[in-house]
Structures are given as C-alpha cells and as structure tokens.
C-alpha cells in the first residue's frame, strides 16, 4: 500500500529496487564522495550497494525493508532506504536519502520525504526516525529544514571505518 500511496502523492515513478538495479544505484551513489567519506575509507563499490540492499537492523525482517527509487522520465533521481515498524511498531526508520548529484538543490528529496511522511501517516505510522554522522553538515541542514528534531548525540562503531563515529539521532512526529 505504501508504494501506491507514494505513486499517488508524487509526480515521480516509484520502484522497489533490488539487486538487478545495483549498477543504477551505484552510479548515483558513486557521485557522493563527501557523503561516503563520513562512513567509509574507500569509494563505494558494487559490493557495498548489494550489502546495503540486504542490510537489516536487528530483529527486522526482509519484508519490512523498502529500498526505493524515485524516477523522473526513467532517470533515477532519489534513493530512499526505509524500514517499517523499526525500532518499534508504528515507527519507520529512514536509513538513507540520496539525490542524483546533478539534481541537488532542486527539491527532489524534499518532495519525496514530504510525500513519504504523508503516506506513512495515512498508513498509521506515528514517527519517522533516522540518524546521520554529526560531521555531515549537509545532512544536518537538510533534516533541520524538514523539521526533524535533533535527539541524542552518540558514538556508533562503524566496521567499514574500523572506528567509532559520532551520530545524531533525529526524529519527526507524523
């Protein structure tokens, strides 16, 4: 039902992405070197993308995960990684929002997240939560502009970096 609501609320085509879409996902993500520097030491790879497509938080099931692509005229313009009913019922976890680099500052991600919030609310969800690296000032500004409240700042071990990184937990009521 979530995909149908998003299709209705947006002028974009929405698709649930799979491993068959890995090259397209990688092409979009590879352009965001500054984002990936917060979370890994090397350039993002096909293996990273494949792992991200399958990655689940503790106790989450594969059917809760929605790795979504938003398209304008067959061009992938926004990626969203979403896990429903995590970390608790009626709550959704936003793992990633990334816009095609050439489309930045054209409000694609803002429109997608605004529609996503409305669709989740209609589905009975109460909160949308996320986290981002404290050092990622672009993400912090984007989340602030969307009304996400800043929560706790904590340290999380990042296996790709081999060290802890400081993250900010964020949330918004739907």
From TrEMBL:
Gene3D superfamilies: 3.40.630.30. GO terms for molecular function: acyltransferase activity, transferring groups other than amino-acyl groups. InterPro entries: Acyl_CoA_acyltransferase, GNAT_dom. Residues 12-174 form the N-acetyltransferase domain. It holds the Pfam family Acetyltransf_4. This is GNAT family N-acetyltransferase. It comes from Ligilactobacillus murinus.
């Amino acid at each position: 039902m979530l995909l149908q609501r998003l299709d209705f609320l947006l002028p974009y085509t929405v698709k649930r992405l799979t491993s068959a879409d890995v090259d397209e996902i990688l092409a979009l993500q590879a352009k965001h070197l500054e984002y990936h520097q917060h979370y890994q030491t090397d350039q993002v790879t096909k293996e990273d993308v494949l792992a991200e497509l399958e990655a689940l938080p503790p106790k989450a099931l594969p059917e809760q995960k929605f790795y979504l692509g938003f398209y304008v005229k067959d061009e992938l313009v926004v990626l969203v990684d979403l896990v429903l009913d995590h970390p608790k019922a009626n709550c959704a976890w936003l793992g990633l929002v990334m816009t095609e680099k050439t489309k930045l500052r054209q409000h694609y991600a803002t429109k997608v997240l605004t529609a996503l919030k409305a669709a989740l609310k209609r589905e009975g969800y109460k909160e949308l939560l996320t986290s981002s690296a404290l050092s990622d000032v672009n993400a912090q500004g984007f989340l602030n502009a969307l009304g996400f409240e800043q929560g706790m700042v904590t340290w999380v071990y990042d296996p790709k970096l081999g060290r802890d990184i400081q993250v900010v937990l964020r949330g918004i009521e739907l």
